[in-house]
Amino acid sequence: INDNSKKIFVSHGKSKTLAYAIVSYGISSDLLNDIQWLDPLLASEVEQNDCLYIDQIAVNPHCLRKNIGREFYEKLIKQSASPTICAFVALEPRCNRTSLKFHESLGFRKAALFQRDEFKGDGFETIENYKSLLLVRH
Question: Residues with Cβ < 8 Å from 105, sequence gap 6 or more?
């Protein structure tokens, strides 16, 4: 990653990567500008960059439903210097219901709605009518 503000955490098994996360402290102002807060009490903490932001997290498909993701998240939370953890979960054009339920089971709450007519995805493809929820665990 050519960005010194981000870190990568990786969980390895005997012969394969089990999970990884790309994290940073704080959410870019570019994203915060398009947020509609559902919970204003969390807004000041997040806007002051006082949160661990999970930019991207993934679990090896062969490890799904084996608590790898839950254990990985719990270790990230324990190692974080911030009491507040933030992550976005897509709603449109495809809702990631599995991720939403997973985050809620870890104590994340719906804090804000993010939406743009056009949004650059992880592969830098343009996604139209994009919406996601900002989830916060405090």
Answer: 70
Give me the pLDDT at residue 2, please: 52
φ and ψ at residue 8, rounded to 5 degrees: -115, 130
* 3-state SS string for 72-99: HHHHHHHHCCCCCEEEEEEEECCCCHHH
> Are 90 and 98 within 8 A, CB to CB?
no
Res 124: pLDDT: 65
The residue-averaged pLDDT of 29-44 equals 87
- Quote the pTM value: 0.85
Specify burial of residue 53 (Cβ count, 10 A radius: 0-12, 13-18, 19+).
Answer: buried
Find out whether 114 and 133 touch, Cβ atoms under 8 Å. Answer: yes
Question: What φ, ψ does residue 78 adopt, rounded to 5°?
Answer: -65, -35
DSSP label at 38? Answer: S
